[in-house]
Amino acid sequence: MAHSCSLLPLPFILVLALIPFSCIPSAQSATDDGSSVHESLLQCLQNNTTPQEQISKLLYPQTSASYASVLRAYIRNARFNTSSTPKPAVIITPTKASHVQATVICAKKVGYQLKTRSGGHDYDGLSYISDQPFLILDMFNLKSVQVDIKDESAWVEAGATLGEVYYNIWQRSKVHGFPAGVCPTVGVGGHLSGGGYGNMLRKYGLSVDNVVDAQIVDVNGKLLDRKSMGEDLFWAIRGGGGGSFAVIISYKIKLVPVPETVTVFRVERFVEEDGTDVAYKWQLVAPKTSNDLFMRMLLQPVTSKATKKKTVRVSVLALYLGNADSLVALLGKEFPEMGLKKENCMEMSWIQSVLWWANFDNGTSPDALLDRNPDSADFLKRKSDYVQNPISKDGLQWIWQKLIEVGKPGLVFNAYGGRMDEIPASDTPFPHRAGNLYKMQYSVSWDEPGAEAEKNYLNQIRRLYSYMTPFVSKNPRSAFLNYRDVDIGVMEPGKDSYEQGRVYGSKYFNANFDRLVKVKTAVDPENFFRNEQSIPTLPNGKAGMTSHTRCSRYTRAIVKTPVPHPFPPTNPVYEPLQPHEEGVPPAGDGKAYEAKL
Ligand SMILES: Cc1cc2nc3c(=O)[nH]c(=O)nc-3n(C[C@H](O)[C@H](O)[C@H](O)COP(=O)(O)OP(=O)(O)OC[C@H]3O[C@@H](n4cnc5c(N)ncnc54)[C@H](O)[C@@H]3O)c2cc1C
Ligand SMILES: *[C@@H]1O[C@H](CO)[C@@H](O)[C@H](O)[C@H]1NC(C)=O
Ligand SMILES: *[C@@H]1O[C@H](CO)[C@@H](O)[C@H](O)[C@H]1NC(C)=O
Ligand SMILES: *[C@@H]1O[C@H](CO)[C@@H](O)[C@H](O)[C@H]1NC(C)=O
């Protein structure tokens, strides 16, 4: 049952066992283990819930024997699983919406930051680490998926995983599905609030293009639905990031039709073969072909078994909402360079294709989608870019050299077009619609612990990102919120600055950023829901200032010793990106590229 959510499989070496075991709260134990805030929080929560709710059982302070395992269960990046990673004072694990309401009220009262975690897949760990004293609101118990086939819809709770969503739909119908991500352990709460895309986006758009209602808890602890929150806030929580606006309890999603038989394939070429021709043509075909076809292309530096030399492998993976014969005919006409044959194709049910995309072995039962696979993660870093003009063959060849030179990171091209081109850029906060041929993901995963390895691989992926500058979107250089990347800008700890927020906000949201700021200012003027890349309030709102003073007075009254949270602890998470002089194509070529396109 080997399975991995990584796009670029790791060589399977178990060095994790070498990490010295360290007591989780050690970063704080010298000063304060958070027991005073735990006490105040518990009192407040008890005041705001009924005795029957036994709220104390849902809290994990640092002194709890289960604290480390609860914290680690949904850490999905081993970089943030070290003794020096900042830890929450208390983890709150609600089983009902009313617990969430009480938590919001009481987190404000004790003056601690509240981080909401659903599936924990944030690439930079923003749902479970912070630069300020904080609490985690951990949604893993709120995971119901209620499918209504007659209405072709479902209510899905934030703590459900995508695998659980797909499984529950499949149990009720073999001809319905939902367009969302390919990794089954990703959480609904972060995925949908951040946009959510998967291998049906050319047919049905993003996950958020198929969200019709939601239940949230706002900053005042009120439980709201689409009608009571209003269209502006409902717009914002469909791609603007949940962490800036509210706690998402659940979304109502519209199911989409899928055929009884779909087809998948994976075709690989090396660049010494005709890999460059295939990669070039992919850019012309994948964003323009039938909406029923999604093709992802992976570009990975590898060592050739035959020559022992480093080279680049081009792999194309596809999902086609139809049978193999019509797919072979379609690509025979549009993409003869790939030479797709029927033997390369596998016909299967949609749910089997979900398992195939998640790298499960052939014939694995759909039950595997229910495995949450807790407390397991690689060390990883991801970055993103958008490409609006095809890269020339010369450009690709230059990129192959750079991939080989840099070492480990690979690139994943995800075709857009189709339905994505039809939806206006302002329909949801996610702006990367018509005009974008594909999204690029930069991907590096490693299994050696320690600061040296981390520094090396972060440096590699940042160099590659720098090299790609001539080929990707500019002004702003756009990025995908769900591919969280703190390199593109962060809010300084304790600040609520429009100017700082605009640095990353304009990249994630382009022209939609200002509307998000307006919604944010209206619904959370004191900036309670915040993180290192959240939406700031309006500069002249100023509402934040007084409340901050008030909050810190609370903090001083309740927490005797302020808890120091060094962030980043030892690793340069926010080290500014150094421009690389070599990061441009050979002299004169940059212009030539533009001209050739
Ligand atoms: C292995 C892997 C594969 C991935 N594949 C895809 C993919 O195919 N397509 C894609 O679009 N993305 C993909 N992603 C990115 C993923 O969609 C985002 O990381 C997403 O935010 C994860 O949601 P989560 O609930 O698991 O994360 P979390 O880490 O729990 O949360 C992410 C962010 O959302 C906030 N948040 C979480 N829950 C709530 C809530 N209930 N209310 C308010 N705010 C909340 C958090 O505070 C944090 O800011 C992948 C990530 C990984 C690690
Ligand atoms: C809880 O309620 C009691 C009685 O109303 C009050 O005295 C106390 O201050 C409250 N505590 C908190 C933390 O809200
Ligand atoms: C965290 O580290 C421990 C060892 O200290 C390991 O057992 C566990 O699997 C790791 N979890 C993750 C999510 O990396
Ligand atoms: C998986 O199944 C397909 C079709 O049923 C078959 O062609 C293929 O060889 C199988 N692959 C493996 C690794 O078993």
From TrEMBL:
<dbReference type="Pfam" id="PF08031">
    <property type="entry name" value="BBE"/>
</dbReference>
<feature type="region of interest" description="Disordered">
    <location>
        <begin position="565"/>
        <end position="597"/>
    </location>
</feature>
<dbReference type="GO" id="GO:0016491">
    <property type="term" value="F:oxidoreductase activity"/>
</dbReference>
<dbReference type="Pfam" id="PF01565">
    <property type="entry name" value="FAD_binding_4"/>
</dbReference>
<dbReference type="InterPro" id="IPR016169">
    <property type="entry name" value="FAD-bd_PCMH_sub2"/>
</dbReference>
<dbReference type="InterPro" id="IPR006094">
    <property type="entry name" value="Oxid_FAD_bind_N"/>
</dbReference>
<dbReference type="InterPro" id="IPR012951">
    <property type="entry name" value="BBE"/>
</dbReference>
<dbReference type="InterPro" id="IPR016167">
    <property type="entry name" value="FAD-bd_PCMH_sub1"/>
</dbReference>
<keyword id="KW-0285">Flavoprotein</keyword>
<keyword id="KW-0325">Glycoprotein</keyword>
<comment type="similarity">
    <text>Belongs to the oxygen-dependent FAD-linked oxidoreductase family.</text>
</comment>
<protein>
    <recommendedName>
        <fullName>FAD-binding PCMH-type domain-containing protein</fullName>
    </recommendedName>
</protein>
<keyword id="KW-1015">Disulfide bond</keyword>
<feature type="domain" description="FAD-binding PCMH-type">
    <location>
        <begin position="84"/>
        <end position="258"/>
    </location>
</feature>
<keyword id="KW-0274">FAD</keyword>
<dbReference type="InterPro" id="IPR016166">
    <property type="entry name" value="FAD-bd_PCMH"/>
</dbReference>
<feature type="signal peptide">
    <location>
        <begin position="1"/>
        <end position="29"/>
    </location>
</feature>
<dbReference type="GO" id="GO:1901696">
    <property type="term" value="P:cannabinoid biosynthetic process"/>
</dbReference>
<dbReference type="InterPro" id="IPR036318">
    <property type="entry name" value="FAD-bd_PCMH-like_sf"/>
</dbReference>
<keyword id="KW-0732">Signal</keyword>
<dbReference type="GO" id="GO:0071949">
    <property type="term" value="F:FAD binding"/>
</dbReference>
